[in-house]
Specification:
Chain B: GO terms for molecular function: catalytic activity; FAD binding. The complex is a heterodimer of chains A (490) and B (355). Chain A is α+β, with helices and mostly antiparallel strands and 490 residues long. Among the domains of chain A are: 88 residues, 2-Layer Sandwich (Uridine Diphospho-n-acetylenolpyruvylglucosamine Reductase, domain 2); 118 residues, Uridine Diphospho-n-acetylenolpyruvylglucosamine Reductase, domain 3 (2-Layer Sandwich), CATH 3.30.465; 110 residues, Alpha-Beta Plaits (2-Layer Sandwich), CATH 3.30.70. Chain A contains 17 helices and 18 strands. The radius of gyration of chain A is 23 Å and the shape is globular. Chain A starts with 8 loop residues before the first helix and ends with a helix. Chain B is an alpha+beta fold. Chain B folds into two domains: 167 residues, Uridine Diphospho-n-acetylenolpyruvylglucosamine Reductase, domain 3; 139 residues. Chain B contains twelve helices and 17 strands. Classes of the chains: A alpha+beta (490), B alpha+beta (355).
């Protein structure tokens, strides 16, 4: 309980059990354990209570009760998030939406799907496939992650350059406000009058409301997709090839890059037949009509050849396409095999700075003594450096975190941002002070207060307090400056 | 090409200390939209705050000052074979990019290419305290902080003075073909939605005066092959047709003095029972209606079609012109407004009488 809360754990649990099946009001430590963290397990906290309501009316009642007693609420989807955004508050309630797992309606003519928030991302496309439709955003966790969580994080995936993020692919959400009102943001239309609160909610990490229903757009499944893998003997050349494709006027469905560490690790893991000697590998998927794909594939091959590709292979069947993607898609487990632990970062940079950023990252890697493998959504500039470490070696976790911080700050320095799709949560809250100044952060706090005047929704996440920022900037940053000066002197 | 941020900031601070509201004006081509500008407010003009700040064609990102005219932007993009693929309408020569974002205006390609709201990556704005703030950025993927940039789309300048905008730009399609055929209104919604559900390079679906118009755009081979498969006659003046629909220069918009209503509804929803001239765009998701009516009469029809209605042009603009908001959302929007503009300086009453 916070200072102002007026109810004990058992009293609160009893209150919930009056309208929610007691099996779904969890207050014992053992059963609460799986809720201690999300996909970023290095941050953990035990909540006061976990509750799994079954109806929207119950969610609304839970919110009203928590509001009345000033109890923090942390909404939780599938728990696959990578920024500790769903980490519990020790005095608060974890509100799991896991039981809201039904696809309520698919309208094939209008190309929309109405979903409960706990529906898995991939389940949408699986259900829509019978109509020749699919849902665009495809985060790596799509087998498990839920659409409600996707809204909270504005999830992306490998097809964002062409098909957009969650914010581009939803029509409306129903949500319960901090004060317990049930409201709909957006509509079946492509826009609504007034302020775009739907955009504001998307990516707001559970700080502004609890989403209880989502209506998404569905896209017609492309007739054909083919993928080219092109190896290069330097990162610079691969980077130029990305620019070359886009300058040529082709917008690939997916455009991914891996560095040599990632190539070897993924090829060992799933034998995709990647060019193991390459310093960088591009995966370029072209989709569309048969005629279009044929035309663009031959043009893309020519561009890669001209820009110095050392190897080119184009998928000739769906099986081959799946195999070539398999390596990229299993990058995380593949790296997990070569290191006891890894820490996945998520900065975005303007692509023209790629070579500089990777070079500086290599320097940081040498300085910290930790290896780093890079997978990169090259089309949209979203980097996922995987820092390899061993949590059992004293100090390595801290080194990995410090290394990660430096990478994110470098992303800001070159004009990018600290998180492309994983969110801020607890993990990147310190770097928010590097990305934004105090006035900007204050504006975020004021927006939060407009939705949640008492600050009960996911407190302590997303936006740092100004006092914290000032301390962080003065201490941590000074240290970095010194390190940089030392390095340049050395 | 000039950076007038300092003057703009001073004007805001001055207005704040005088307690005087400000009407934010770009090219002044959209003064007919929203509720009337407050006669007691001063004017804050963005027309001198112009110029491209950064443009990297390979990054597909453009950063411009908000007062930059659309035509200057399009000229710069065309040099690199690129365009604003949300097809911003222009209701006059001086149309600026800031006004397009504030009014959230997008053209016929909107269901396929996204809206200006979809393509905005970052903004800088002056809030009501005169602070010059930066949100979002110049990269396509960015989830740091709340999405203040997209919040500006449609807020009609009520939250701050947008001073700079970063946008995603795209390559111009290599080929465009427009197919036209006769079709009755009661068949066309099904037809347009069915076509939009096919994996073909469609970028426009419009119906007016008993004819349906479909636009195909993209790789030459794909456009040609689809045009052969689909029915309809290839239109010689296709581009001109879409431009007239985009800019409201088509006869439908010019012929009558009756108020123009905009229905933003489910694309496949049945037509509202409302006799009168209609123009359907966005495969049915944007429907224009001309006729004498009141907002409160039309709202239930729009709701039944899953969406909203607004009085776009003409008619009585002293009442509300936007679809009514439920009380909890009114409260939140008032508080959001207050968080940006605590003294209520910017465009008072322009969006809603209560904001």
């Amino acid at each position: 309980m916070t200072d102002k809360s007026t109810i004990s754990r058992e009293q609160l649990a009893d209150t919930f059990r009056q309208f929610i099946d007691p099996a779904f009001v969890i207050s014992d430590d053992e059963t609460m354990r799986p809720y201690e963290c999300d996909g970023l397990a290095m941050y953990r906290e035990q909540p006061m209570l976990v509750v799994l309501p079954e109806t929207v009316a119950h969610v609304q009642r839970v919110m009203c009760i928590c509001h009345e007693h000033n109890i923090p609420v942390v909404a939780r989807g599938a728990g696959t998030g990578l920024c500790a955004g769903a980490m519990p508050h020790k005095d608060g309630v974890v509100l799991s939406l896991a039981r809201f797992d039904r696809i309520l309606e698919i309208d094939p003519l209008a190309r929309t799907a109405r979903l409960q928030p706990g529906v898995r991302n991939l389940a949408i496309s699986e259900e829509a496939a019978q109509y020749g439709l699919y849902y665009g955003p495809d985060p790596s966790s799509q087998i498990a992650c839920s659409i409600g969580g996707n809204v909270a994080e504005n999830a992306g995936g490998v097809h964002c350059l062409k098909y957009g993020l969650t914010v581009h692919n939803i029509l409306s959400v129903e949500m319960i406000t901090a004060e317990g009102d049930r409201v709909t943001l957006g509509s079946d239309g492509l826009d609504s009058g007034g302020m775009d609160l739907l955009a504001l909610i998307t990516g707001s990490e559970g700080l502004l409301g609890v989403v209880t229903e989502v209506k998404v757009k569905l896209l017609p499944k492309p007739e054909v997709a083919q993928v080219i893998i092109a190896g290069f003997d330097s990162i610079e050349k691969a980077g130029d090839a990305v620019g070359g494709i886009i300058s040529h006027g082709i917008i690939p469905g997916g455009l991914e890059m891996m560095d040599s560490h990632a190539i070897i690790a993924t090829d060992d893991f799933c034998h995709a037949g990647y060019p193991r000697e390459a310093k960088a590998l591009l995966l370029c998927e072209v989709d569309g009509t048969e005629e279009e794909v044929q035309q663009h594939i031959s043009e893309a091959e020519a561009v890669f050849r001209k820009l110095g590709a050392t190897s080119i292979r184009t998928s000739q069947s769906e099986e081959e396409r799946a195999l070539l993607w398999k390596g990229r898609k299993s990058a995380f487990p593949a790296v997990g095999r070569i290191s006891p632990d890894y820490y996945c970062m998520d900065g975005t940079i303007p692509r023209r700075h790629l070579a500089r950023v990777l070079l500086e990252m290599e320097k940081m890697s040498e300085e910290s003594g930790l290896r780093v493998a890079n997978v990169f959504h090259a089309g949209d500039g979203n980097l996922h450096p995987l820092i390899l470490f061993d949590a059992n070696v004293p100090g390595e976790l801290e080194s990995a975190e410090a290394f990660g911080s430096r990478i994110l700050e470098l992303c800001v320095e070159v004009g990018g941002c600290i998180t492309g799709e994983h969110g801020v949560g607890v993990e990147k809250i310190r770097q928010m002070a590097v990305q934004f100044n105090d006035n900007e952060l204050q504006q975020f706090h004021d927006i939060k207060a407009a939705f949640d005047p008492t600050g009960m929704l996911n407190p302590g996440k997303g936006v740092p307090t100004l006092r914290f920022c000032q301390e962080y900037r003065s201490i941590e940053h000074k240290q970095h400056k010194h390190e940089q000066v030392d390095a340049s002197h050395g | 090409m000039a950076d007038q941020i300092q003057q703009l900031q001073e004007q805001v601070l001055q207005a704040r200390s005088n307690g005087q509201a400000l009407n934010i004006v770009g090219g002044g081509t959209k003064s007919f939209m929203g509720r009337p500008a407050s006669p007691d407010a001063g004017t804050l003009s963005l027309t001198g705050h112009t110029g491209i700040v950064e443009y990297h064609p390979v990054e597909l990102v453009l950063t411009v000052r908000a007062g930059t005219p659309l035509k200057d932007i399009e000229t710069a993009l065309a040099e690199h074979g690129q365009c604003l693929h949300f097809e911003p309408p222009r209701f006059g020569d001086g149309s600026t990019i800031g006004g397009i974002l504030a009014c959230n205006l997008s053209g016929p390609a909107r269901p396929w290419s996204g809206s200006v709201r979809d393509q905005v990556l970052g903004v800088r704005l002056l809030n009501g305290k005169g602070e010059h703030l930066r949100f979002g950025g110049q990269v396509l993927k960015n989830v740091a902080g709340y999405d203040v940039s997209r919040l500006q789309a449609g807020a009609m300048g009520t939250l701050g003075v947008i001073t700079e905008i970063s946008l995603k730009v795209m390559p111009k399609p290599a080929t465009t073909v427009t197919l036209m055929q006769d079709m009755a209104l009661d068949e066309v919604i099904h037809y347009m939605n069915q076509r939009a559900g096919e994996p073909k390079p469609i970028t426009g679906a419009c119906w007016v005066d008993g004819k349906v118009y479909l636009r195909l755009a993209g790789a030459h081979s794909a456009v040609e092959a689809t045009a052969e498969k689909w029915s309809g006659e290839v239109m010689a003046q296709g581009d001109q047709f879409w431009q007239q629909v985009r800019d409201q220069q088509h006869d439908f918009f010019k012929d009558s003095a009756a108020p123009l209503w905009r229905f933003s509804v489910g694309s496949a929803a049945a037509m509202p029972a409302l006799e009168g001239p209609w123009l359907l765009d966005w495969a049915g998701a944007q429907r224009w209606y001309r006729g004498e009516a009141t907002l409160s009469d039309l709202e239930p029809l729009a709701r039944a079609a899953g969406g909203q209605v607004s009085l776009f042009r003409g008619g009585d603009r002293t009442g509300e012109v936007m679809h009514a908001q439920p009380e909890p959302l009114k409260t939140i929007q008032r508080r959001v407004k207050n968080s940006f503009d605590p003294d209520g300086l910017f465009n008072p009453g322009r969006l809603y009488s209560w904001l």
